[in-house]
Amino acid sequence: MKFQPVIGLEVHVQLLTDSKIFCGCSTRFGAEPNSQTCPVCLGLPGALPVLNRRVVEFAVKAGLATNCSISHRSVFARKNYFYPDLPKGYQISQFEEPICLKGWLDIQVNGTAKRIGITRIHMEEDAGKLVHGELPGLDDGSGVDLNRACTPLLEIVSEPDLRTADEAVAYLKQLHRIVTWLGICDGNMEEGSFRCDANVSVMPVGADKLGTRAEIKNVNSFRFVKQAIEHEIERQIDLIEDGGTVVQETRLFDPNTGRTRSMRGKEEAHDYRYFPDPDLVPLVIDDEWVRRAQDELPELPEQRQRRFISEYGVSEYDAEVLTATRSLAEYYEGCVALHGNGKAVSNWVMGELTRALNDSGLSIDQCPVTPRLLAELVKLIDSGTISGKIAKTVFDEMWRSGREPGAIVEEQGLVQVSDSGAIEAIIDGILAANQGQVEEYRGGKEKVFGFFVGQVMRASKGKANPALVNELLLNKLKG
After folding, report:
1. Number of domains observed in the structure of the chain
2. pTM
3. Closest listed residue to residue 235, CA positions, set 203, 259, 206
4. Which has fewest Cβ within 10 Å: 179, 256, 406, 413?
5. Same domain assignment for residues 80 and 120
């Protein structure tokens, strides 16, 4: 029997607000445990929540950017469950009336486009965090850090439209790109700012009824999501083929083994005993608020990607890379505005600049080479002042010192040699010293031509104009 996987994702997006969703405590990451708490986020008797307006603004932007309809009325609910890191004994979330409904995102996997539905986006507070292992003041055991309690989250729930782990990763990356592009989330997966629960089931190909699903909790990297889903699909198929039955449960993924393991039985909605939070009135959003949020939306990644292709003549792949983040797209466009040739600039942004950023572990916002400096460097190549090879040397010095490319070229004597007489003299010496290779070329072994080019460039210390070298060499070898 052949099986069809069915996958849905619940993505938790931690919002970039300075304060928590229902109180004024800081959301800063890495503070001393339990130092960013107050009676509200600790759930003390008599403490009342007050909704952070910024959270609502971010939720509306996320909904608009993912093609959702914005609910004019949404309601906060209490989701009741009991964990040591949930001080109130319930989580304030949204259930029957969330803020955003029925959206979608388009993804591409192996050149094939697919639309993935989004069931809902709702606002909620995060729980605290259990810290296991050795702790200050404790020899062993677990501690509870409530700094994260009441941190604002959006939960983005997809339709079960995904069929492979690769589709799931593509959807996650697209969603990650959007929320970071909007500036509503820093996207830091290691710190848990962007994490997902994957609901995975399998059913016989051609069947109408979905299989029993297992939920893999809190996976915080694209690589682990792929591994977890692929393992879970294989586990469920093996279980069914061996005569077993998949049970509805919550599982954890262990990156060390690449396997999932059972955590607890999976709760249904009624197990949480949802009911409207009596301390929070229904949230009402009028048309003007939605229009204002729509007007404030930046040009979204896919829109800018299409514009880069049409305006600057870059390939679809290049445009996707150049819009990986909003900062990178703006850096690139800043270079193009100063230089004019989108393709020439894209080669440098995607080549030397990206390499240097990766090697140094810096983000584009920390780049020591400004758009103006990079544009000036490419202009020096266009004018024939330096060769592309010499430009890489100049770029490395610009990266190290932040100096002007023209000053580096002048100081180090890197100006390209375009004097045909000087280059001919070098070529004559190379040919005279390598008569064997000359005869090989004239005998039909044209690959030897690259040897001569390399020798000339080496003799000129990389300064000879490559186009002129090729032209003069070809004439002399034919002669």
Report:
1. 3
2. 0.85
3. 259
4. 256
5. yes
